[in-house]
Structures are given as structure tokens and as C-alpha cells.
Amino acid sequence: MWIHILVFFLTFFMMEFMAWFTHKYVMHGFLWNLHEDHHKKDHDSWFERNDTFFIFYAVVSISFFLLWQNNILELGLAIGLGIFAYGLTYFLVHDIFIHQRFKLFRNANNRYAKAVRRAHKMHHKHTGKEKGECFGMLIVPFKYFK
After folding, report:
1. Which of 34, 40, 60, 101 is the most exposed place for a label (fewest CB within 10 A)?
2. Which residues are CB-neighbours of 77 under 8 A, at least 6 positions away?
């Protein structure tokens, strides 16, 4: 039981690294064509091509659930839930809190919330795929807490 809880939290925290890596080297790399509309609002749709990255991670999470359900990987449930929990957190922080795709969490003004917003604003300062910064989401460089 404890190993499952540990694996859940390790998976959740490893997803921050995966999000940073994917954002920097995949989204701002060879799949820029899917991420570009997130930086350049040249469309009227609420949906963005960038939203397809959610589908990718959902499929990965579901795959671990299926591995667990079919008795192939005992820790599959913990891993799948860790990925799901990070995805939900990402949606809440990035899409709702930062980008206000739904008008919630508008009054969160503690130091951490302000730092997350500042770091993300610096990331969006660059509209091209080059010269980006602050590719993570939950772990914010200390300079943005000032």
C-alpha cells in the first residue's frame, strides 16, 4: 500500500520534469505547429491545436490504468493516477488560473500564485519557438517570487 502512495507522488513530481522537457523540446521543437496557436492568438476558437497535448497524456495515463486492470503492472494504477493528478493540476493552474479559460481563481494573490503568473508571462513574452524561458509550471524560479 505504501509503495503505491509513494509511486503516485513520485509520478506526480516526475510529471513536472516531463512537462518541462516536453514543453521545451517537443512543443517548442518539432511539434511547434501544434503549440504555436497558444502563443499567437490568431484564431477565434476557444479550442487550440495546443490542446492535443492533453490527449497524449490522457492516453498515457489510461494505458497505465489498463496495464493495472489487466494484471500486467501492479503499480499501473498509482502511475496512471499520478499522471492524471498532474494533468488535472496543470489544467487548473495553466488553463483556468493563468489563462482564465474559465473565470475562476481570479483573486488568488499569494506569493506563489503571483510567481507562477510572472513566470508564465515571461514565457509568453516570446511569441516564437526560439528564445523561450520558464517551460515548467509548478516549480518556479526564485527570481519570480520577488
Report:
1. 40
2. 4, 64, 65, 68
H or E element that contains 19: helix 2-21
Q: Give the long-range contacts of residues 109-117, CB within 8 A, separation 24 or more.
A: 111/145, 112/140, 112/145, 114/144, 114/145, 115/140, 115/144, 115/145, 116/140, 116/144
- Reading the block at residue 104, the C-alpha cell is 475562476
> Kindly report the CA angle at 133 between 24 and 23, in degrees rounded to 5?
20
Give residue for cell 489563462: 99
* C-alpha gyration radius of the chain: 16
* Residue 79 one-letter amino acid: I
End-to-end CA distance of the chain: 41
**Tens digits of residue pLDDT in 75-109:** 999 999 999 999 999 999 988 888 887 787 778 78
